[in-house]
Specification:
The structure is a homodimer. Chain A is an alpha+beta fold and about 230 residues long. Chain A is about 20% helix and about 30% strand. Chain A has 6 helices and 12 strands. At the A-B interface, helix 5 of A face helix 5 of B.
């Protein structure tokens, strides 16, 4: 896998290379680096916040599901049955980061977890923390940067699922009213100009299980086809 | 009790009158009205939100404790062991209100509850809903005014206590750091110019009992003597 050294995001700046010919004809701009291609079972993410004093808080490990065509995060499920907190925290400590970091990982078939990316900022995989945790990733980012003590990352709900609202190729029904009638469901619209594949907002649903929360969030998303 | 017909708040615009002489010499401005003086056991409050379509949500009944000198709300404890939701809702329906209302009540020694005030807006006695409830009084106010369905007012914590930060006569220690270290405690500072008795912010603490939450909030307030 070739990756552009700068300005990559959401799969932009990546090029899969299978042979010498593809290596020579890739379309990436600027300098690139190569990584071994990894066949993974699923993708995980962890939000870690680190203060100036080295104190860290680690949020629950979540599963992230990408849109197979757009390579954009579509769904985040919290929590998971695995704990990548220690490796995620070690990564932030290794770079001496301060503030909120989103750490993305691959979980392999043998259970091994490999770090894929460190995002040095509040991260899409942590939007669920607004409603689901004692302190959100945004609040803790401000605390970290200002040198205040960090707040608890504990989940206040049994389960939470975040679904991104991506601009549709063919916009359809937009019925905020029906979306808001779904229990424990919170709609965030960013007020951006709709464009196919663009992140226009997100929905977080809480529930007693991730299945219940997922069902609620997906149901809400069906009413928000921007 | 004489009350000014306009612009009264936080005890301003009230004058206790014990005899004909005091009635003739009161200092209230503009036209006034008279109410029978009520000797109450404690003060309660309820947030009610009503939509254009008449749908209502009623938050838990809370106890409000006033500063005896300043006549300003000092502490709000949620929930209480009594339910004034029905009378509060009936009051908002009687005036055909839309949006968030704070309804203040007196609880008498015989258990009777008398409405003292209807505040047609998000109210100090509902600030606890930001952290303690599924939907805050502010969020539901916006939903009501925009004609969206109202969100659940259910408490997400067992107990919550809000303590107002009132400007001190003699400002003392201000140590946000120590306040934020107290568990399940949220500090809101409004960025206002400090003045004795002025509402400069508030603290909400959650807990498994109101006693625990009260202890946390009061401990935090001791570090915020603005």
């Amino acid at each position: 896998m070739l990756k552009a050294r700068r300005d990559g995001y959401d799969g932009h700046g990546n090029a899969l290379v299978n042979n010498q010919h593809e290596l020579e004809s890739h379309q990436l701009k600027g300098s690139v680096y190569a990584e071994q291609f990894v066949s993974f079972e699923r993708e995980l993410a962890v939000i870690v916040v680190r203060g100036h004093d080295g104190a860290c808080v680690t949020y629950p490990t979540v599963e992230t599901r990408q849109d197979p065509r757009l390579h954009i995060c579509r769904t985040v499920l919290a929590p998971t049955d695995v704990d990548a907190g220690a490796i995620a925290r070690a990564a932030v400590e290794a770079v001496g980061g301060v503030g909120t970091f989103g750490i993305e990982l691959f979980q392999l078939a043998d259970g091994q977890m490999l770090i894929n990316e460190l995002a040095p900022r509040p991260h899409n995989s942590g939007h669920y923390t607004i409603e689901a945790c004692s302190t959100s990733q945004f609040s803790n980012h401000v605390r970290a940067v200002l040198g205040y003590p960090l707040g608890s990352p504990a989940m206040r709900a049994k389960a939470a699922v975040m679904v991104n609202i991506l601009g549709a190729d063919q916009p359809g029904a937009v019925d905020v009213d029906r979306a808001l009638r779904i229990p424990e469901t919170y709609v965030h619209l960013y007020g951006k100009e709709p464009r196919p594949g663009r992140k226009l907002g997100h929905i977080t649903s809480l529930g007693s299980t991730t299945d219940e929360a997922l069902q609620r969030a997906q149901q809400a998303a069906e009413h928000l086809r921007l």
